[in-house]
Amino acid sequence: MTAVATRKTSTSAALSDSQLIALYLQEQDARYFSQLYRRYAGKVFAKCISMLADHGMARDATQDVFIKILLNLSKFTEQSSFSTWVYSITYNYCIDLIRKKKKNILIFTEDMGRVSKESEVEIPDSVILEMETNRLEKVMGKLPIGDKAILDMKYTEDMSIKEIGEVLNKTESAIKMQIMRAKIKAQGIYEDMFGKEPIGA
Known about the structure:
Layout: H1 3-12, H2 17-27, H3 30-52, H4 55-72, H5 82-101, H6 126-129, H7 133-142, H8 145-156, H9 161-168, H10 172-194
Helix pairs in contact: 2-3, 3-4, 3-5, 4-5, 5-9, 7-10, 8-10, 9-10
Protein backbone atom coordinates (compact mmCIF):
# COMPACT_ATOMS: atom_id res chain seq x y z
CA MET A 1 0.00 0.00 0.00
CA THR A 2 1.39 3.43 -0.89
CA ALA A 3 2.08 6.09 1.74
CA VAL A 4 -0.81 8.16 0.36
CA ALA A 5 -3.23 5.21 0.51
CA THR A 6 -2.08 4.36 4.05
CA ARG A 7 -2.57 7.97 5.14
CA LYS A 8 -6.02 8.05 3.50
CA THR A 9 -7.09 4.82 5.22
CA SER A 10 -5.91 5.99 8.65
CA THR A 11 -7.64 9.33 8.14
CA SER A 12 -10.92 7.66 7.13
CA ALA A 13 -10.94 5.70 10.40
CA ALA A 14 -11.33 8.99 12.29
CA LEU A 15 -14.23 10.24 10.16
CA SER A 16 -17.88 10.04 11.21
CA ASP A 17 -20.34 7.79 9.40
CA SER A 18 -21.89 10.81 7.69
CA GLN A 19 -18.50 12.06 6.52
CA LEU A 20 -17.56 8.64 5.14
CA ILE A 21 -20.87 8.40 3.26
CA ALA A 22 -20.51 11.89 1.79
CA LEU A 23 -16.94 11.22 0.69
CA TYR A 24 -17.81 7.84 -0.82
CA LEU A 25 -20.73 9.29 -2.79
CA GLN A 26 -18.57 12.20 -3.94
CA GLU A 27 -15.36 10.33 -4.82
CA GLN A 28 -16.59 6.74 -5.30
CA ASP A 29 -13.47 5.60 -3.40
CA ALA A 30 -14.04 2.09 -2.03
CA ARG A 31 -11.86 2.80 1.01
CA TYR A 32 -14.59 4.95 2.52
CA PHE A 33 -17.21 2.23 2.21
CA SER A 34 -14.70 -0.35 3.45
CA GLN A 35 -14.36 1.69 6.63
CA LEU A 36 -18.14 1.60 7.13
CA TYR A 37 -18.04 -2.15 6.51
CA ARG A 38 -15.35 -2.61 9.18
CA ARG A 39 -17.39 -0.60 11.67
CA TYR A 40 -20.64 -2.48 11.17
CA ALA A 41 -19.92 -5.95 9.76
CA GLY A 42 -19.57 -7.54 13.20
CA LYS A 43 -22.82 -6.00 14.43
CA VAL A 44 -24.71 -6.98 11.29
CA PHE A 45 -23.43 -10.55 11.49
CA ALA A 46 -24.40 -10.74 15.18
CA LYS A 47 -27.94 -9.63 14.35
CA CYS A 48 -28.17 -12.08 11.46
CA ILE A 49 -27.00 -15.01 13.57
CA SER A 50 -29.38 -13.98 16.36
CA MET A 51 -32.35 -13.95 14.00
CA LEU A 52 -31.44 -16.76 11.59
CA ALA A 53 -29.69 -19.12 14.05
CA ASP A 54 -27.48 -20.47 11.27
CA HIS A 55 -23.85 -19.40 10.72
CA GLY A 56 -23.87 -20.11 6.98
CA MET A 57 -27.09 -18.20 6.38
CA ALA A 58 -25.86 -15.37 8.62
CA ARG A 59 -22.62 -15.02 6.66
CA ASP A 60 -24.49 -14.92 3.35
CA ALA A 61 -27.09 -12.53 4.78
CA THR A 62 -24.37 -10.19 6.06
CA GLN A 63 -22.87 -9.92 2.58
CA ASP A 64 -26.32 -9.38 1.03
CA VAL A 65 -27.17 -6.71 3.61
CA PHE A 66 -24.00 -4.78 2.77
CA ILE A 67 -24.76 -5.02 -0.93
CA LYS A 68 -28.19 -3.49 -0.17
CA ILE A 69 -26.54 -0.81 1.95
CA LEU A 70 -24.08 0.02 -0.85
CA LEU A 71 -26.79 0.16 -3.51
CA ASN A 72 -29.03 2.36 -1.35
CA LEU A 73 -26.38 4.59 0.24
CA SER A 74 -27.46 7.60 -1.81
CA LYS A 75 -30.97 7.22 -0.33
CA PHE A 76 -29.76 7.56 3.28
CA THR A 77 -31.26 10.86 4.40
CA GLU A 78 -29.84 11.09 7.96
CA GLN A 79 -33.35 11.38 9.41
CA SER A 80 -32.13 8.56 11.66
CA SER A 81 -28.59 7.54 12.61
CA PHE A 82 -26.66 5.42 10.13
CA SER A 83 -26.51 2.59 12.69
CA THR A 84 -30.33 2.59 12.98
CA TRP A 85 -30.64 2.59 9.18
CA VAL A 86 -28.23 -0.37 8.95
CA TYR A 87 -30.16 -2.19 11.68
CA SER A 88 -33.42 -1.58 9.80
CA ILE A 89 -32.04 -3.06 6.57
CA THR A 90 -30.60 -6.03 8.48
CA TYR A 91 -33.83 -6.70 10.39
CA ASN A 92 -36.07 -6.47 7.34
CA TYR A 93 -33.75 -8.61 5.21
CA CYS A 94 -33.67 -11.36 7.87
CA ILE A 95 -37.44 -11.23 8.38
CA ASP A 96 -37.94 -11.65 4.62
CA LEU A 97 -35.59 -14.66 4.63
CA ILE A 98 -37.44 -16.23 7.55
CA ARG A 99 -40.83 -15.68 5.91
CA LYS A 100 -39.62 -17.31 2.68
CA LYS A 101 -38.15 -20.24 4.59
CA LYS A 102 -41.11 -20.78 6.92
CA LYS A 103 -44.53 -20.04 5.52
CA ASN A 104 -47.06 -18.47 7.91
CA ILE A 105 -44.45 -18.08 10.67
CA LEU A 106 -45.59 -15.99 13.65
CA ILE A 107 -43.40 -12.87 13.67
CA PHE A 108 -44.95 -11.17 16.71
CA THR A 109 -47.09 -12.50 19.55
CA GLU A 110 -49.98 -10.39 18.31
CA ASP A 111 -50.55 -8.07 15.41
CA MET A 112 -49.26 -4.63 16.41
CA GLY A 113 -52.46 -2.90 15.46
CA ARG A 114 -54.65 -4.83 17.89
CA VAL A 115 -54.74 -3.86 21.53
CA SER A 116 -56.25 -6.41 23.90
CA LYS A 117 -57.54 -5.48 27.34
CA GLU A 118 -55.60 -8.26 29.09
CA SER A 119 -52.34 -6.80 27.76
CA GLU A 120 -52.90 -3.37 29.28
CA VAL A 121 -50.87 -4.14 32.40
CA GLU A 122 -47.43 -2.64 32.97
CA ILE A 123 -44.66 -5.24 33.05
CA PRO A 124 -41.44 -4.00 34.70
CA ASP A 125 -38.11 -4.16 32.87
CA SER A 126 -36.86 -6.44 35.67
CA VAL A 127 -38.81 -9.28 34.02
CA ILE A 128 -36.10 -9.28 31.35
CA LEU A 129 -33.12 -7.68 33.08
CA GLU A 130 -33.09 -9.99 36.11
CA MET A 131 -33.29 -13.29 34.25
CA GLU A 132 -30.11 -15.33 34.54
CA THR A 133 -28.20 -15.21 31.25
CA ASN A 134 -28.53 -18.93 30.45
CA ARG A 135 -32.25 -18.88 31.24
CA LEU A 136 -32.79 -15.67 29.26
CA GLU A 137 -31.18 -17.28 26.21
CA LYS A 138 -33.57 -20.24 26.46
CA VAL A 139 -36.59 -17.96 26.88
CA MET A 140 -35.55 -15.72 23.97
CA GLY A 141 -35.10 -18.81 21.81
CA LYS A 142 -38.78 -19.68 22.28
CA LEU A 143 -40.16 -16.22 21.50
CA PRO A 144 -41.58 -15.33 18.09
CA ILE A 145 -38.74 -13.81 16.06
CA GLY A 146 -40.22 -10.29 16.14
CA ASP A 147 -40.64 -10.33 19.92
CA LYS A 148 -37.07 -11.56 20.32
CA ALA A 149 -35.76 -8.84 18.00
CA ILE A 150 -37.66 -6.02 19.70
CA LEU A 151 -36.48 -7.08 23.18
CA ASP A 152 -32.94 -7.36 21.82
CA MET A 153 -33.16 -3.83 20.41
CA LYS A 154 -34.47 -2.46 23.72
CA TYR A 155 -32.35 -4.32 26.27
CA THR A 156 -29.21 -5.45 24.41
CA GLU A 157 -28.74 -2.66 21.89
CA ASP A 158 -30.19 -0.05 24.29
CA MET A 159 -32.06 1.56 21.40
CA SER A 160 -34.64 4.22 22.15
CA ILE A 161 -38.35 3.71 21.47
CA LYS A 162 -38.01 6.25 18.63
CA GLU A 163 -35.13 4.29 17.04
CA ILE A 164 -37.00 0.99 17.32
CA GLY A 165 -40.01 2.66 15.70
CA GLU A 166 -37.80 3.77 12.81
CA VAL A 167 -36.52 0.20 12.32
CA LEU A 168 -40.00 -1.34 12.38
CA ASN A 169 -41.75 1.61 10.73
CA LYS A 170 -44.25 1.85 13.60
CA THR A 171 -45.41 4.62 15.93
CA GLU A 172 -43.82 4.96 19.36
CA SER A 173 -47.08 3.96 21.05
CA ALA A 174 -47.24 0.77 18.93
CA ILE A 175 -43.63 -0.03 19.85
CA LYS A 176 -44.33 0.45 23.57
CA MET A 177 -47.31 -1.89 23.29
CA GLN A 178 -45.28 -4.49 21.40
CA ILE A 179 -42.46 -4.38 23.96
CA MET A 180 -45.02 -4.86 26.73
CA ARG A 181 -46.57 -7.84 24.92
CA ALA A 182 -43.13 -9.32 24.30
CA LYS A 183 -42.31 -9.00 28.03
CA ILE A 184 -45.62 -10.68 28.93
CA LYS A 185 -44.82 -13.50 26.50
CA ALA A 186 -41.27 -13.84 27.86
CA GLN A 187 -42.56 -13.93 31.43
CA GLY A 188 -45.06 -16.66 30.51
CA ILE A 189 -42.39 -18.76 28.79
CA TYR A 190 -40.08 -18.32 31.79
CA GLU A 191 -42.78 -19.52 34.20
CA ASP A 192 -43.59 -22.50 31.95
CA MET A 193 -39.92 -23.50 31.82
CA PHE A 194 -38.71 -22.67 35.33
CA GLY A 195 -41.81 -22.26 37.49
CA LYS A 196 -42.98 -19.13 39.28
CA GLU A 197 -39.90 -18.66 41.44
CA PRO A 198 -38.81 -15.00 41.66
CA ILE A 199 -36.73 -13.98 38.64
CA GLY A 200 -33.12 -13.47 39.65
CA ALA A 201 -33.46 -15.81 42.64
